[in-house]
Write a sequence for this structure.
């Protein structure tokens, strides 16, 4: 299992809503909303959750993205 998959699996165990948020982000990206447009408050409103939980989910997504970028960069070296 790749490091990215391990990180994602760990996040899924910690936060059951992370999969739904990932799918929502992907859907938004397909409608021209960029990841930089994503915010804690948008996650809060969409999923009707509190600030701390939304912030944690956003941090998880950022960690996953950073892992994916690092894996891509490793392949190009």
């Amino acid at each position: 299992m790749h490091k990215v998959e391990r990180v994602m699996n760990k996040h899924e165990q910690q936060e059951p809503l992370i999969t739904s948020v990932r799918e929502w982000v992907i859907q938004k990206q397909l409608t021209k909303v960029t990841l930089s447009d994503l915010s804690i408050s948008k996650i809060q409103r969409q999923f009707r959750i509190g600030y701390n939980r939304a912030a944690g989910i956003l941090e998880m997504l950022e960690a996953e993205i950073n892992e994916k970028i690092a894996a891509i960069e490793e392949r190009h070296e």
About this structure: The two ends are 21 Å apart (CA to CA).
